[in-house]
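User: Fold both of these, please.

Assistant: Here is the first one.
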Amino acid sequence: MLVSIVTTVETDTEILLPRNVGRAHYAAILQRLHAVNPDLVAAIHEGDGPKPLTCSDILNGRSNRDGTRLEPGTPYYLRVTGLTPDVSQALLKALVEKPPAAIELLHHPLRVTGATADAAGHGWAGAANYESLAARQMLPGGSIPKQVTMQFASPTAFKQAGRQMPLPLPDLVFGSLVERWNRFSPLALSPEMRRFGAEMLALTRYRLQSRPVQQKNGALRIGGVGTATYRALGGDRYWLATMQMLAEFARYSGVGVQTATGMGQARRLEDN
């Protein structure tokens, strides 16, 4: 089970937050989940590799050098996703079935006015499962588009040969996605998707800006924000279907590093 929950929050007073509050949102979500399933929180916190959830920064926050200013009377949106049945069900219970009165970010309580996992309620919300994502692309019938456009809504970066890479190159994007899919899905995909991205996918269009994200130690990690279009130069139906399926999966899994704490928020866009 995959879920993407968008929580609407408001403030009663003007607040100035740091530019990046993804880590604070992650802490608030773990605290909320602890009331539902403390053993699950321990497993999330102690597990190695990608986390089975992602937490966003403020989706519609407007930031400058001073930080992100929140105004009274304006709805703001926070998003969290679950990649396993246990995590998704716990998130639904903690945020949708029994929504909290407030979510606290860096000692600032934000009043919760709504939460939804319905795509009709918010463009970043949604629910699916691995089987339905696979069936939508993998079942015979119809042609598979050779092109896909991705939106990177928060700074997205990768580790490559021990270095930071802020550019969403095809092999890094689809390599990251296939690794997450194979870690959490009951349906395995060929890990050669990373190689397919390197050899058979071209970055044909992009509109990206670099954005810094402050780390716990005060250092900065640079990530890319914007859109990028990838086009297959070849490949059979399996590879094209896998490309499209992983692009859909990105809505739930995130892409690249530090997706649990605000980076790598991504989704597939409809090509015009």
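And the second sequence with its predicted structure:
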Amino acid sequence: MDIAQTKRRENIAEYILYLWQLEDLLRAMQFSPEAIFSTLIAPRQDLNEEQKPAFLIWYMDLANLLRQESKEEKGHLEHTLHLIADLHNLHLQLMKLPIGEHYRQTVARLEPELPRLRAVIGNPGMSDTELCFRALYAAMLYRIKGEGEKTAVTDTLEFISPVIAELAGLYGKVERGEIDLFKEK
């Protein structure tokens, strides 16, 4: 809960990937309150006994959302998919507006890799932004499992990471009112 709140405030991309990881973790624990408590809450030294029930409720709320959205076995919460759609809308704006000049240069290095990445990840109708997130998450899972040092996904990370990092940074600045997309340079 606290980690998610911090990530949401500081870096939208990390927040999305963190929630996706939590989704898989909750599934692995079969949404068991006991397993969630003993694995995710009890070991934390930074929480006092009064805080622990609130954390359990937060994790169980995530588990319940997965159930409500019929994503007990796979898939991602609509909340994160809407955030990715928001990021993609920003991407589209940055591809046109003067303020996106540097971003377009970063994206240009990724564009030749997108067809190969789409072939590996699948789903031809997926936005480029969601494709990048799915590739980042897949690479993260490969690393956790100790597999696939050189796969099409991990090869492409050097192109994806800068794009998503810049997009997330700009998203945060827009959200905080630090930049105006429509203001002339």
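The mean pLDDT is 91.
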